[in-house]
Amino acid sequence: MTERTITHEFGGEPLRSVFVGTGGAARGTVIIVPTFAGVSDLEMGFARDLAARGYSCLVADLWGRSYNGPDERDLAFGHMTRLKEDRAALRDRMLDIVEVTRAQEGVDPGRIAAIGYCFGGLCVLDLARSGVDIAGVASFHGLFDAPDLPPQPIRAKVVAYHGWDDPMVPPEAVVGLAKELTDAGADWQIHGYGHVGHAFTNPAAATLGIPGVDYNAAAARRSWAALNDYLDELFG
Fold it and tell me: What pTM value is reported for the model?
């Protein structure tokens, strides 16, 4: 397994993503889009797990730094809000991440998927909404609201892993996403986990002190197992 930092930029902002290689040939490449807190040990752990299973990974830096602890929460939310308020620019930022990934040595441009967590889940759904030609996207406790942009046919296979009690994504938003994906002609799945809230894959989620945001070990395990089955389907 290998790890290296990739310096790149978008809109004049310097960014530092991390590429995790398998140490040999890869079955495919997975872009990992972090939560609003940026690249952290959590996403790096997911990348190392996937690399051990034969996938190279690019852990994407969206805004140039990471945020650690509740004292920096408001600053992190500010950056997330900035990106979310301009969904066309966010789409272009994600498309640029795909190009950065395709440019890495050993990456097969035709064997790329993207997964994202919380805000990162919204980012990968917006990537699919762009009509980009990648194999698939997977959203973990992502936000589902669609951008006010002209709809495009969705070519990527889409899966969303969702806590049914997530206060940020009520049931009507789940139905809305299903209709949107159906109308776009997507191959889609939505996995709902009962009695589960937001951020269920993050063991430190409760430290944010936000009602309905908490880790759930069973949902984390089940969704990760489902992801590995999904990647097997995409890449064989």
Answer: 0.95
